[in-house]
Amino acid sequence: MKTINKGGEVFATDPNDINIQQAKLDSLLIQGKRRVLAAREFVWTAVSTLKDLIDQTFERIHRLLKSEVTQRQKIAYVNELHGLVTSHLDP
């Protein structure tokens, strides 16, 4: 323990004690870490969703190219697919 002389009185301080500013800083750092982790999880979820959307789009285009429908029907289907993808990307 360390002693501090203030105005004639002697106070014993614990070296493990922290001041209010340090406690605030620690709290802000912990909040920041939590927010970064939450943001990271959100980004990875969005990336995963986007990957699923891309995979589904390529699968549908692949099936469309193999199908025996008319060119006009293929164009209509691609336009519908474009609308579907756009609606998922622009909430």
Automatic annotation (TrEMBL):
Protein name listed in UniProt: Uncharacterized protein
